[in-house]
Amino acid sequence: MIKEKVGKRIKELRHKLNISQEELSFRSCVHRTYIASLEVGKRNISIETLEKIVTALEVSFSEFFNF
């Protein structure tokens, strides 16, 4: 359940910035297919990778987890 919520939040914030998965991949140094898997809740994410993505999405951790 948490994997789906985190993935949905990544996708929501990515759309808010109006960027593609590829652009988020470039900004975060995380492979595009990994981001795609996260967004559909198929992968667990490490804290380090989450930090890269949150930074690339230009939000704080508290804002990210404000579901």
Task: Characterize the structure shown.
- Helix 1 crosses helix 3, helix 2 packs across helix 3 (32-39) and helix 2 (21-28) crosses helix 4 (47-56).
- The model has no long low-confidence stretch (mean pLDDT 97).
- 69% of the residues lie in helices and 0% in strands.
- The protein has a single domain (2-58), classed as 434 Repressor (Amino-terminal Domain).
- The protein has 5 helices and no strands.
- It is an all-alpha fold.
- It starts with a helix and ends with a helix.
- The longest helix has 16 residues, at 2-17.
Gist of the model:
The protein has 5 helices and no strands. It has 67 residues and is mainly alpha-helical.
CATH superfamily: lambda repressor-like DNA-binding domains
CATH class: Mainly Alpha
- Number of strand segments: 0
Could you tell me how far the N terminus lies from the C terminus, measured between alpha carbons in angstroms?
A: 13 Å
Q: Could you tell me the mean pLDDT?
A: 97
CATH topology: 434 Repressor (Amino-terminal Domain)
SSE topology string: HHHHH
Strand content: under 5%
Rough shape? globular
Low-confidence stretches: none
Helix content: 55-70%
- What count of domains describes the coordinates? 1
What is the architecture at the second tier of CATH?
Orthogonal Bundle
Main sheet summary: none
